[in-house]
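Budget justification note: compute hours in this period were largely spent on complex prediction jobs such as the one shown. Inputs:
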Amino acid sequence: MMRIEIVSHSLQPGRLIEEVRRDESGAVTLFLGVVRNYNEGRRVLYLEYDAYPDMAVKVMEQIVEEARQRWTIDDVAIEHRIGRLEIGETSLAVAVATPHRREGFEACHYVVDRLKEIVPIWKKEVWEGGEEWIEGSLEATPESAKQS
Amino acid sequence: MVVKVLFFAALYERVGMRQVTMELPEGSTVAELQRTLAERFPQLATYGSSLLFAVNAAYVPSNEPLRDGDEVALIPPVSGGI
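Corresponding output:
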């Protein structure tokens, strides 16, 4: 089971936790990406996220399949918010239910790292006096983006 | 043939449009589309090798042949997540 969504409203991580937990899962691991007020010496005012939603969901599904080949995962829910986000707001929530804690930590870590590498979502940092679309993952290639 | 080209993030701001349709000779590849786009939108020229391409929402290499009606997305380096 999995549910993956790109949304433009504020995220409610507690709902994802309830959604994925089940009787056979001994661990629920939650990761939140949060907008911070400072980056590379600049005081950030807010962020703006853009996405190619259809493809972003497909690529995240692929990433979950990759994780499932490595770890036993009972259920996953992922929500990524787009649009304007203020400091302290949540951009990403990943909840993973697994039989044991170790695979939960590892699977969650894998999903978030891979997401930052290949999922077509972009953020623009807006600070006092300027703004910039951040180019995060420069190493990605069509090959590295394929199911691994 | 005609393909739809999608722009996101910095590319959307540079081009000022979310999407355009482009007419190409039959059998054109993604790389050929990129050259044609750079002529129409010189502001895309600086991107070159850091761009990835997706056809119908899947990553493809730049020698991928295109077909009529394809949806092609230009994917600048991604930065989602946190």
